[in-house]
From TrEMBL:
Protein name: Amidophosphoribosyltransferase
Pathway: Purine metabolism; IMP biosynthesis via de novo pathway; N(1)-(5-phospho-D-ribosyl)glycinamide from 5-phospho-alpha-D-ribose 1-diphosphate: step 1/2
Functional summary from the UniProt entry: Catalyzes the formation of phosphoribosylamine from phosphoribosylpyrophosphate (PRPP) and glutamine.
Lineage of the organism: Bacteria, Thermotogati, Thermotogota, Thermotogae, Thermotogales
Molecular function (Gene Ontology), one example: amidophosphoribosyltransferase activity
Gene3D superfamilies listed in its UniProt record: 3.40.50.2020, Glutamine Phosphoribosylpyrophosphate, subunit 1, domain 1 (3.60.20.10)
Gene it is expressed from: purF
Family per record: In the C-terminal section; belongs to the purine/pyrimidine phosphoribosyltransferase family.
Reactions that this protein is recorded to catalyse: 5-phospho-beta-D-ribosylamine + L-glutamate + diphosphate = 5-phospho-alpha-D-ribose 1-diphosphate + L-glutamine + H2O
EC number assigned by the record: 2.4.2.14
Length: 431
C-alpha cells in the first residue's frame, strides 16, 4: 500500500501536500516525495517530516505527492516519477499494483521503451506517451488498457488528473479547498486540513482538474471489488469507504468475532492501533473488560509494512503493562495474521509479563493467498495460514487458542458485498 495526494489551484501547495501526506503517513513509512509547479521535485527515504523539510516553493499552486510502504527498491523507485514524453512533461503518483506488470514492461521494452525504475507505475507513462491523440485522450486510452489495480494522480502543466481502476480496488477522494481542489487516498486526510464537499472518485473514472473547472470521464465499468484490507488494517479508523465508517466496521468485526467464537477470559487486550476498534467490539459483545495491556511506542513504524527485522521492531513497538495481564486469562485482539512473526512475539511478550493464558482473536479471516493488487502479503508459502490449518497456526504463535472471523462475518460487519477478498478466498479476477 501507498498513499497519494494532489492539489490544484491551491495556495502554498507544498505545505498543503505536506499536511495531507502526513495524514496518510500510516499508508507508507519508507519514503516520501512531492512534485510541484515547474516539476520541482523533492523526495527521499524516511517519514514525511524528515523528507519534506522547511517551507519550500511558497508560490506553488499545484502538485502531487506520495508516501511509500516498504518493499524492495532503490532511490529511483521513490515516487512521484517525472518523465518527458511526446505529450509533454508529466509526473505520476500511483497506489496499487498491476498484476501483469512484468508482461507489460517486457512488451514495452521490446518496442524501445526505457524504464528508469523497477516500478510498474512507469507503464502508464509509456502508454500515455505512445497513444495517439492529445494528452487527455492519451490518458484515457492508457487507463482503458490497464484494468487493475490502481489509484493514480497525473500532473501536467494544464491539469491534474485523478483516476481509479474500473473495479475501484484502491481508494481515492477529492474535495474543495478554498478556490482549488485537494485529492487524497483517504477522506480523513482531507477533512483533517479542512477540505469541504469531499467525495469519492468513482471506479473506472478519471477526473481532470483545470483552471476552468473539473471534467469527469468514465472510461470503463466493472463489477466493483473494493479492497477489504482497507477496512481491516490499512486505513485510518476515521476514514470512510463505500459509505461506511472504518472504525464502526472494525467494531462490528469484533462483535461478530465473539458471536462466532464465544470464550471466557478476564481481559481483552488490543494490539494497537488497528486492533483497537475490533477489541472494543469484542469486549462489548462479550462483556469481558477491555484494557491496554500492550503499550505502543508511536515512533516505531507499522511492523506489517516493514521488510526486515520484524522481531526487533515489534519488541521496540509494543511493551506490556504487567499489572494489566499478570495472572489473567488474556484475549489479545488483532486485525490479521500474515506471516505469523508479529503475533508469535506478542504472545511471548504477554506470557513473559505473567499472563496465565493467552488467547488470540483475529477480526478477519485467515490470509491464505497472496495479493496481486497492491498489498505486500508475500508468496503463499510465506503466509502462515497459506498451507496450515488454524490448529497449526495456533501452535506456531504458541497461543492457548486461536480463532478468526469468518468471511461471512467480515461481510456482515462491513455491510457490503462488493469487496475484494482474494487474499482470503483465492478467487482472483484478473482480466
Amino acid at each position: 500500500m501507498c498513499g497519494i495526494a494532489g492539489v490544484w489551484n491551491v495556495k502554498d501547495a507544498f505545505s498543503v501536500l505536506h499536511d495531507v501526506l502526513l495524514g496518510l503517513q500510516h499508508r507508507g513509512q519508507e519514503s516520501a516525495g512531492v512534485v510541484v509547479d515547474g516539476f520541482k521535485t523533492i523526495k527521499g527515504k524516511g517519514l514525511v517530516d524528515t523528507v519534506l523539510t522547511e517551507d519550500r516553493w511558497e508560490d506553488a499552486e499545484k502538485g502531487i505527492g506520495h508516501v511509500r510502504y516498504s518493499t524492495a527498491g532503490s532511490l529511483e523507485d521513490i515516487q512521484p516519477i517525472v518523465a518527458f514524453t511526446r505529450k509533454g512533461r508529466i509526473a505520476v503518483a500511483h497506489n496499487g499494483n498491476i498484476p501483469n506488470g512484468e508482461k507489460w514492461i517486457d512488451m514495452l521494452q521490446e518496442k524501445g521503451a526505457v524504464f528508469q525504475s523497477t516500478l510498474d507505475t512507469e507503464i502508464f507513462l509509456h502508454l500515455i506517451s505512445m497513444s495517439e491523440g492529445d494528452i487527455k485522450t492519451s490518458i484515457v486510452k492508457a487507463l482503458k488498457k490497464i484494468p487493475l489495480a490502481y489509484s493514480l494522480l497525473i500532473l501536467h502543466e494544464e491539469f491534474l488528473a485523478a483516476a481509479r481502476d474500473p473495479y475501484g480496488i484502491r481508494p481515492l477522494f477529492y474535495g474543495r479547498y478554498g478556490e482549488g481542489v485537494v485529492v487524497a487516498s483517504e477522506d480523513a486526510a482531507l477533512k483533517a486540513i479542512g477540505v469541504e464537499d469531499v467525495e469519492e472518485i468513482p471506479p473506472g473514472t478519471v477526473v481532470f482538474f483545470t483552471n476552468k473547472g473539473e471534467e469527469k470521464v468514465k472510461f470503463s465499468s466493472k463489477e466493483r471489488r473494493f479492497c477489504s484490507f482497507e477496512f481491516i488494517y490499512f486505513a485510518r479508523p476515521d476514514s470512510h469507504f463505500l459509505g461506511q465508517s472504518v472504525h464502526i466496521a472494525r467494531y462490528r468485526m469484533g462483535e461478530e468475532l465473539f458471536r462466532e467464537n464465544p470464550i471466557e477470559a478476564d481481559v481483552v487486550v488490543p494490539v494497537l492501533d488497528s486492533g483497537l476498534s475490533g477489541a472494543m467490539g469484542f469486549s462489548s459483545a462479550s462483556g469481558i473488560p477491555l484494557d491496554i495491556g500492550l503499550m505502543r511506542n508511536r515512533y516505531v513504524g507499522r511492523s506489517f509494512i516493514m521488510p526486515v527485522d520484524r522481531e526487533k521492531i515489534v519488541k521496540k513497538k509494543l511493551v506490556p503493562i504487567e499489572d494489566v495481564v499478570r495472572g489473567k486469562r488474556v484475549v489479545v485482539i488483532d486485525d490479521s495474521i500474515v506471516r505469523g512473526t508479529t503475533m508469535g512475539i506478542i504472545v511471548k511478550i504477554l506470557r513473559e509479563a505473567g499472563a496465565r493464558e493467552v488467547h488470540v482473536g483475529i477480526h478477519s479471516p485467515p490470509v491464505r493467498f497472496p495479493c496481486y493488487y497492491g498489498i505486500d502479503t508475500a508468496r503463499k508459502k510465506e503466509l502462515v495460514a497459506g498451507e496450515r490449518d488454524v490448529e497449526e497456526v495456533k501452535k506456531i504463535v504458541n497461543a492457548d487458542s486461536l480463532f478468526y472471523l469468518s468471511l461471512e462475518g467480515l461481510k456482515r460487519a462491513i455491510g457490503r458485498n462488493e469487496l475484494c477478498v482474494a487474499c482470503f478466498s483465492g478467487e482472483y479476477f484478473h482480466d
